[in-house]
Amino acid sequence: MKKQITREMELLERRVIEIPADCWDAFKTLVNAPPKEIPAVKELARYAPSWNVFRKGA
Fold first, then answer.
1. Each residue of 22-50: b (16+ CB within 10 Å) or e?
2. pLDDT band at residue 18, thresholds of 50, 70 and 90?
3. Contact in structure between 19 and 27 (CB atoms under 8 Å)
4. In this predicted structure, what is the pLDDT of residue 25?
5. Quick one: pLDDT at residue 57?
6. Could you tell me the pTM of the whole model?
7. Which carries the bigger pLDDT value, residue 39 or residue 13?
8. CA torsion 52→42→44→46, rounded to 10°?
9. What secondary structure, in 3-state letters, does the chain show?
10. How far apart are CA 48 and CA 37, in angstroms?
């Protein structure tokens, strides 16, 4: 379990990614595409994060 957590943290900390040359045009197309509305994300945005909810009297 500890090794898995270590590997996950390593992936989360990556700041440099490599994009193969043959995928570069597809990547640029996605980056430059207009934003898409995702209904599920829009619904989630209506709620405060669970770690940011303060209870009265706590």
1. eeeeeeeeeeeeeeeeeeeeeeeeeeeee
2. confident
3. yes
4. 95
5. 52
6. 0.43
7. 39
8. 50
9. CHHHHHHHHHHHCCCCCCCCHHHHHHHHHHHHCCCCCCHHHHHHCCCCCHHHCCCCCC
10. 19
